[in-house]
């Protein structure tokens, strides 16, 4: 097994170190666009091509050592934690579906919300849950199956409703006090959580309001749903348990374990399945996440090769070479975290990677650290929300049986949030924090 010192080594790289990312984009995104079919090129194959190329261009060390570096990235602690979440999420989603939780929750939602307010209500629910629990992945795990069920019941597009959940999930990921991105951005910029929140909310609140209005207007054109059946409240309990325990701050893995146990207990008590059937449902849910797990590990290995060959350091150097003025400094901070996010596919890691550099840029050019923290968090969430190989979109696609690129086209909130953040740089908004305190 590779040692810790091996995984931390970094070379002095150039543009060649970044080309594996271009191979991935060309083999997946370009092929999909040329064929007009986003299912034509499987994501694992695109990652395989990029990974083989990344290993091949790594020179100066034995082939076995290259594989060790790749494996170190694939077995990174953050990657393995995400895989465990995927395993538990798959088991919970299939257990809850088989027990009837999705159908019961859909009937409850249809009974509570008028047809025209269904998209807006789903967006508000996702915003509230993500703001409370501080994790976009946890929000998507809880609400994506409900979005899929609502799509079947109402005739609305599954990709559209799933994108509504994903957009709302990133609202809270960006703002929550307990979000990893909030903690990472404020720690690297050495500012207070509340100060960063006050700046951040003034930038993204207009985006959230504009998105909500858009969903209200488009929701009016939605077709009427069929009359909901009687709500079986006991079957809603697993989702309520997941939401309540997550809101109380429980670890997402403990939350999912409780959800699995609750689904199994209620399912057996109501005669929905036997103990062996429940085990079979969990097995199907876990194996259904197999492709997602493979993609996550290959992405971790690929990104480790980029880091080891100096690709990320080279990118950061290019982005900071010609900064002029405060607006340029803020734009460079935004560009740095976006590019790091594309390379790492993890917004928290991206912030931790470029955070110290962003603080130096902010101090040198008089950018308020509350503002630099806000820019880091906002642009990382914007980028992460649009990555077809990011954990959030992969999770949403896996739970609803969609293509990640099929969801991206309906992600109104991340696009509007990114636009508002750019306007904040251009217009120097909010004015109270455009100068260093």
Number of beta-strand segments: 0
By helix and strand content, what is the structural category? Answer: mainly alpha
Instruction: Give the N-terminus to C-terminus distance in angstroms.
Output: 48 Å
Helical content (DSSP H or I, runs of 4+): over 70%
Evaluate the radius of gyration: 22 Å
Describe the global form: globular
The main sheet comes to:
none
Mean pLDDT: 83
* Percent of residues in beta strands: under 5%
Strand and helix order: HHHHHHHHHHHHHHHHHHHHHH
Sequence stretches where pLDDT stays below 50 over 5 or more residues: 1-5
Short description:
With about 425 residues, the chain is an all-alpha fold. It has helices spanning about 5-10, 20-35, 45-55, 65-75, 75-100, 100-110, 120-135, 135-155, 160-175, 180-190, 195-220, 235-245, 250-270, 275-290, 290-310, 310-320, 325-345, 345-365, 370-385, 390-400, 405-410, 410-425.
């Amino acid at each position: 097994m590779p040692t810790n010192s091996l995984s931390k080594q970094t070379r002095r790289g150039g543009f060649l170190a970044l080309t594996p990312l271009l191979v991935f984009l060309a083999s997946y995104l370009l092929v999909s666009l040329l064929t007009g079919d986003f299912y034509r090129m499987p994501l694992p194959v695109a990652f395989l091509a990029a990974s083989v190329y990344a290993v091949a261009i790594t020179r100066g060390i034995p082939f076995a050592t290259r594989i060790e570096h790749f494996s170190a990235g694939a077995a990174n602690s953050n990657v393995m934690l995400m895989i465990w979440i995927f395993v538990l999420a798959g088991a919970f989603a299939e257990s809850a579906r088989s027990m009837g939780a999705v159908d019961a929750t859909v009937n409850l939602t249809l009974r509570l919300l008028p047809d025209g307010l269904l998209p807006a209500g789903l967006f508000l629910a996702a915003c509230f849950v993500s703001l409370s629990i501080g994790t976009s992945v946890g929000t998507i795990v809880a609400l994506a199956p409900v979005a899929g069920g609502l799509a079947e019941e109402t005739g609305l597009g599954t990709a559209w409703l799933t994108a509504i959940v994903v957009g709302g999930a990133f609202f809270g990921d960006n703002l929550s006090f307990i979000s990893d991105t909030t903690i990472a951005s404020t720690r690297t910029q050495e500012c207070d959580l509340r100060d960063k929140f006050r700046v951040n909310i003034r930038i993204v609140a207009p985006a959230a309001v504009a998105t909500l209005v858009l969903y209200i207007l488009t929701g009016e054109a939605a077709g009427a749903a069929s009359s909901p059946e009687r709500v079986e409240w006991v079957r809603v309990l697993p989702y309520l348990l997941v939401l309540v325990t997550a809101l109380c701050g429980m670890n997402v893995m403990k939350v999912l374990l409780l959800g699995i146990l609750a689904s199994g207990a209620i399912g057996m008590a109501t005669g929905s399945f036997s103990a062996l059937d429940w085990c079979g449902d969990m097995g199907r849910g876990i194996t259904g996440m197999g492709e997602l797990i493979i993609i996550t590990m290959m992405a971790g290995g690929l990104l480790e090769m980029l880091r080891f060959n100096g690709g990320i350091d080279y990118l950061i150097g290019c982005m900071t070479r010609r900064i002029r003025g405060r607006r340029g400094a803020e734009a460079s901070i935004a560009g740095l975290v976006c590019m790091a996010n594309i390379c790492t596919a993890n917004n928290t890691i991206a912030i931790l990677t470029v955070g110290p550099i962003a603080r130096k840029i902010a101090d040198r050019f008089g950018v308020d650290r509350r503002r630099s923290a806000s820019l880091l968090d906002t642009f990382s969430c914007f980028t992460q929300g649009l990555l077809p190989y990011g954990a959030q979109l992969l999770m949403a696609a896996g739970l609803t049986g969609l293509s990640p690129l099929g969801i991206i086209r309906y992600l109104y909130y991340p696009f509007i949030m990114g636009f508002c953040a750019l306007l904040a740089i251009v217009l120097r908004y909010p004015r109270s924090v455009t100068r260093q305190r």
